[in-house]
Amino acid sequence: MFADEPAPEAPAVVTTGTLFGVGMGPGDPDYLTVRAVRVLERAPILVHFCKKGRRGNARTIADAVLRDPAREFPLVYPYTTELAPDDATYVSALAGFYDDAAARLADHLGAGRDVAILSEGDPFFYGSFMHLWRRLKDRFPVEVVPGVTGMSGCWTRAGTPITWGDDVLTVLPATLPHAALAERLRGTDAAVVMKLGRHLPKVRAALSEAGLLDRAVYVERGTMAGEKVIPLAGKPDDEAPYFSMVLVPGEGRRP
């Protein structure tokens, strides 16, 4: 380089935002972690999933922290329980929904704005966050803030230790076919059955077939307003909201 030639300019530093998956815990805002609260207080974009015309449960939990609605970024599901999860229309619509949401959030992240996605329970446990994480994780920095899972909140509020000694715990979605539920229940020491909703009659029948109905505990809206905890055998109807589950405590080794 000659003395009178200008020095080359340093390359511009591009700073992107960070994608946060924030575990919101099982429902009671007192179970939010310190890290979750700090991210919620500072992130300029706060994403929450919801059904059309309703607030998502994760957003409801955040009422204890959020005071600035201008930061909110709702993502409205095209379907929730209207179609079966393996229905081709459902699969296609959800894939397009997550693709579009990821593109919209990428615009904010690319502009240097942090994005926090509110997730019921823990973000990496049956969470919608994972679908956006999969689409964005190779392009932007990511931090996942773990949260108290719904099942942990439920067995705590039920006063029911779930595993003892060498018990094996199996977590099952109630959406499985009856035969698969019964088979897996027969082969485990303790179980949590999630996503009950309209599947409760099938779950009850599978538990009975596996010889576990008398040990099963039904928990509805655990740690939330309207919480119910009763033996499943004593539940007189087959009505169950989405935020309900069945616990089958283990009976393993105890000193």
Question: What does this entry look like structurally?
Answer:
This protein is of the alpha/beta class. The protein folds into 2 domains: 19-148, Cobalt-precorrin-4 Transmethylase, domain 1; 151-248, Tetrapyrrole methylase, C-terminal domain (Methyltransferase, Cobalt-precorrin-4 Transmethylase, Domain 2), CATH 3.30.950. Helix content is 28%, strand content 19%. The chain is built from 7 helices and 10 strands. The strands form 2 sheets. The chain has a 5-stranded parallel sheet with strand order 3-2-4-1-5, sandwiched between helices. Strand 6 (169-173), helix 6 and strand 7 form a beta-alpha-beta unit. Helix 3 (88-110) crosses helix 4 (129-136). The longest helix is centred in the middle third of the chain and has 23 residues, at 88-110. The model has no long low-confidence stretch (mean pLDDT 92). InterPro entries: 4pyrrol_Mease (IPR000878), 4pyrrol_Methylase_sf (IPR035996), 4pyrrole_Mease_sub1 (IPR014777), 4pyrrole_Mease_sub2 (IPR014776), CobI/CbiL (IPR012382), CobI/CbiL/CobIJ_dom (IPR006364), Uropor_MeTrfase_CS (IPR003043). Pfam families: TP_methylase.
